[in-house]
Each structure stands twice: as C-alpha cells, then as structure tokens.
C-alpha cells in the first residue's frame, strides 16, 4: 500500500478549517498522522504532494442517489470529489453486484444502500416507474418489490434487506399530489400511519435508521409522526411551525434534493447550464434536461424557504441530490456541486456550512464511523481543490486530486 504526504494544505476537516498550512500523512489507505503546523518528514518511498494554495477536504457524500446497476454513476461521481453515495431504493441483487465492484475498485464512489424501499402494491415508486421507464421486463422487476401489508411482511422485508447489506430503511409516502403525471390511481396508494410506524420500529429494532420520501407538508408530518429519523426530500410547500416542531420532536434531519425539485418544476435552468458547462455529450444533455412534472401551483422558492427556515431552527441539513440515470436534470458529482451552490446562493448557508452538510453531518447522522472527517484513523477518502471552497463554494469545482482508500484515483 502506498504512502502519501500532503503538505502545506488548508485543511477543512469536515467541521471547520483546522489549519491554513497543515500536513496529512496517508498510510495503508487511512489517515495516519495530521500536523496542523510543523512539517512532517516523509517516510521512505513516500509520494509528496505540495498542496500550497489548495484546500484538503474529506471526500464529499451525496446522501440521495439511485445507483441501480449504473457503475458509470460511481465513476463519474468520484471525478467530482464524491467518494460515497447513499442509494435510496435499489434491487437487492443489483446492490450486491455494485457492492462487489466498489470493494474491488478505488476509482469509483463507495455506496451505502437501503436496498428495497418499503413499498406497497401499486404505490411509490412503481406508480411513476411504470409511466416513465422504457425497460423491458419492468413488471418482472416490480413484482419482486416488497408488498408490505402487515408486521410479519415488514419483519421479513427488513431481515432480507439487512442480509443483502442494507444499512438503513427508506419509507415511501407519496400520493402524487404535486405532480401532473397521469397516474392510474389518484391518489397513488400510500401506507397508513400504523404501517409506517411498524416499519420505523422494525428498522430501529435492527439498529437501522429510517428515512422517508415525502414531498408535501402533509406527507412530511405523516412520516415524522411515524417516527422517522430523516426526510429524503424537503417539502415543496410553504413551511409552517407545525413542520418545524415535528422535525424538532424527532431530532430529524432533511436531505433537501434541491437539484431534483428544480428539475421537477423546470426551474434553475440557468444554473443547470452553468454546472453542465464542463460536461460533454450525453452527460451534458442529461444534466440540461428536466423532468417538468410539478404542478404549476408549486415553486422551488418554497423549498428554499423550507430549507433555510429548518436550518435556522437548528435542523440538520444533509446534502443529497436524487441523482440517477433515470432522472434528467441530474448528473453524478456535478449535481452535488450544484446542490451546494444552491444551499449558499438560495438558502443562506455559508460555504462552510454547505460543505459540512456534504461531509461530517452525513456520517454523524448515519453513523458511519470510518469516513467523512479528516481525522487520524479514518479512511483516506480525500479531495484536494485549488483555492478555498470554505469561502467561495465555486472552488469545489477546482478538483486537483481525489483519493479513495489512500489511492490517488483522479489527478487533474
Ligand atoms: Zn430518490
């Protein structure tokens, strides 16, 4: 295993800037030593990186993506400094395949998954997948999704997800209310409060966090009452005190996914243009596209208000985008930069707060003890960028080097 010394870097450790001229030694895939001032002497056969004028950060994390079996998503993410993604509904078999790949290769982002979401018959997301997917044998695939009906089916579902490597649970609370799509049933069937409670309880009994898809205030309150630990989207409706109190009661976090809200409502086209400018071909087209499925009654401005108000109320914000191959307006990695830019420029975050939301805050809330911070003993999943993204969030795009497990897999 290689040894690397990164010298003279501004160090953002995931929480704050701990040094303006610091030194980090990486050995056997982990951060072995940090010196905030005094230079470290390089051991024999050590690669030395002069990081003057650059900032060293923990690898970024996207707390909401859909990987499916799309290895390219993981290859692209890491090019943008995203070293871990959280997969929010996937086939168990596909996650196992993907997990085997991320265990073998450092040049892809790592994946934590919930495997199957807690789905019910004809509910979310089958209602939308049936409308938008061109996939052959789609019904075969959907027929394997959980069809939760009672406590026994829920316990069985959690046990099988765990056996497939799931580390958290994703609940679905979506009646299609905000969308203009021609769903066969309106409202789209949703689980009862009693069922969502049983899913949350079974997750907690198995030591797993429960996060939920919800897009409206009503659905958000429903899953918070069921006891979820976090929301996988911010609500698109104007925020009110009841929502704030419900978040506080659970100490719940929110993963805003402004990127997908903007694609759904067809807003932020100019900023999508900006973040697509470095891309080419199908990648660029994918990011420039948009879903345009939100009813005109709703605007992303309410989402900005939700996020900034929740943040001011002390609710944890975890960076996530809902990037997937099926969702135009998103692109692995580039969408994280876009999401962070919107936190700063639309929701009143400081650049530092935005970066915290994509690093330490996620590992803190999801309980991943091995990454997300520049700390001795943690994995050397690191990003070096030119300039200072803790003061100017645009600098996060100036990627110089990305390390995963101590291996420099991106060099610009
Ligand atoms: Zn999603």
Automatic annotation (TrEMBL):
Pfam families: Amidohydro_1. Residues 55-409 form the Amidohydrolase-related domain. It comes from the Eukaryota. SUPFAM superfamilies: Composite domain of metallo-dependent hydrolases, Metallo-dependent hydrolases. Transmembrane segments: none annotated. One of its GO terms (molecular function) is hydrolase activity, acting on carbon-nitrogen (but not peptide) bonds. InterPro entries: Amidohydro-rel, Metal-dep_hydrolase_composite, Metal_Hydrolase, Metallo-dep_Hydrolase. Gene3D superfamilies: Amidohydrolase (1.20.58.520), Urease, subunit C, domain 1 (2.30.40.10). This is Amidohydrolase-related domain-containing protein. It comes from Penicillium daleae.
